[in-house]
Design brief:
heterodimer, A: mainly alpha, Ferritin, 2 domains, globular, B: alpha/beta, GMP Synthetase, Chain A, domain 3, disordered N terminus, binds zinc ion
Chain lengths: ~325, ~190
Amino acid sequence: MPEELDAIQAVADDLVHLRSHPAPSPVEEHGSVYDGLLGGDPSHWAFGTDFEDPLAGVDTAIPDGVDPRQLATYCLMLADDALVASQRLGQWCSRAPDLEEDIALSNMALDLLGQARLLLARAAAADPGVVPPLPAGSPVPPEDALAFFRPDGAFRNVRLVELDNGDFAVTTVKQLLLSSVRLAVFERLRDSRDHVLAAVAAKGVNELTYHRDYAARWFVTLAQGTPESRRRLDAAVAHVWPFFAELLLGEPVEVALAAAGVGVDPATVRDDVTAVLGQVLTAAGVEEPSPAPLAGGQGRRGRDGVHAEALSLLLAEMQVVARAHPMGQW
Amino acid sequence: MTGAARTLGRRPGVAPKLAAVVQSRPDVEQLRERARLLAARVTDPEMPMLTLADLGVLRSVEVTEKRRVVVTITPTYMGCPAMATMRDDLLRVLQEGGLEATVRVSLSPAWSSDWITERGRRALAAHGLSAPGPAPARGGSVPLTLQPTVRRVRCPRCACDDVELTSEFGATACKALYRCTRCREPFEHVKEI
Ligand SMILES: [Zn+2]
């Protein structure tokens, strides 16, 4: 036994002295594959993972008759649903039931992150007042400030997306409900008078079509699979469905912007969503659940910033590095 | 006109800009042509057998009054992590050609796999990737598809059409994974979108 420990220690000592990869040699003509990482281009790092302005080249004028503050709030609602759902899906990375699902869930996370980024940038462009203040000289762009420096109470996502991942069945049910509603909303949002929302929706429809089909197929597969997969799906439906009603409630901001031809009142997509879910439930042989809607504190809900502890924990993990380094240097 | 310029001109939304070229000054036109040729050389970081022009990601190359080159690209998917690399590659190639350029992103109209050129499709096949079929019609309500997506896909290696879908998502969002039942090789199919 001591010999084994010695051997392990020897390997550990070697590892400590070994660099994870050799530094590029300045005399070597072609350098190393890591050279690019050492360049001065900030676009490869946090805070500016892409273009300085993700909306460069897009018409960001506020449509006539629209209150910029309301538009910003509406964009935050759509953005936060996507951002929180993306973070949850990202937590599956390397933990999914098999490699195909791992890649699928990560790809959907990436799609939603892309939607969130543009929508957060749109919120900031519509009303800079929504962006949390940062120290002077901070390189953090507005969309990152909104993602990483807002407290949980300022997040306007529905509570369904913040629910813990649970098992694969819970994630499947969450994804089915979210993507069904979001796709129906985006189908209509393509006609928005706001150019950014219309563009994000047009692209998002293509992405969400895959997300909804993916979740719906797995819903049916789990329901019609083994007794164990059925048991888990039934438990997931009972657990997640109470959070569904909130997705179809039109908040005053959503109703006002829908009236202005800029947003979509989710209450108006109820029939479409019910029809789609009906198809899935029928194919799965699962009875439509009719849970009592979730109580919100004095009628306040996720859109008002009322969240479960799960969101605080998720944000703590997501935001900790950014908050520790608001100047983007370490 | 070069092949690349013809390709650009075929795409929706780009043709009117090309019409404006005719009236512009000859030196600006020359500069634009040079920039267009350089930009048309840049390849996709994740599918290097394809140029950005052949992928349909390169939407336009313009020259401003101040003789600055403005290149417009569109993401295949909104969360496409390769956009920064594409931007950097375009800037580098143009800079090496002595041109100062700005790269802009255009979100609308959304990218469609229909914009992949014939040359691009041949390049995909030559590299073992299956090219996308016609993109689904846009607009209106999207129907739910509970059965796996049925595509007319042929194995890029042995041309067998008896293939099975392994995963709707490949290494990148724009590709699905298939397996040929005859030669038993896995291959990637660029998705219709
Ligand atoms: Zn084959």
